[in-house]
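ok so I'm stuck.
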Amino acid sequence: MSNVEWDSKLVIGQKAKAAKVTRNASDLNGACTARRAGAVVGTDKKVTGGSNKAHQGTDHQRIAKLDRENEVAPPPKIAPSVGKAIQQGRMDKGLSQKDCAQKINEKPSILQDYESGKAIPNAQILAKLERVLGVKLRGADIGKKLEGPKKS
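replied:
not stuck anymore, here's the structure
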């Protein structure tokens, strides 16, 4: 108990003085008064100050060119012959695009993309169309009428 200092003050609830970072000469005037008050003052130079970040170097242009050279080809679109076969099969059955799309539980816009050749082929949708239209849409003999189920 003899090493306790009874004369020292303990201040509760006062914040510690934080260091102020100045970046230009006009802030240094305020720094002098801060130093006199006993605050810690440090000065830092801005590393990227005043530069256009979009044009730092030409490396990004070279990297972008390399990326374009190695790009993967876009997925293949459906063949025009398949679109024509879908359209012909639909006309033979007397169905509109909307009716045919309803029968295969798809949106009319999807059927429109298939007929115009803009769609990426999906085996499930093609199978539904084959079943509804009775026309072969995959493999060889595209547009040929489908026979009934095979009897064994």
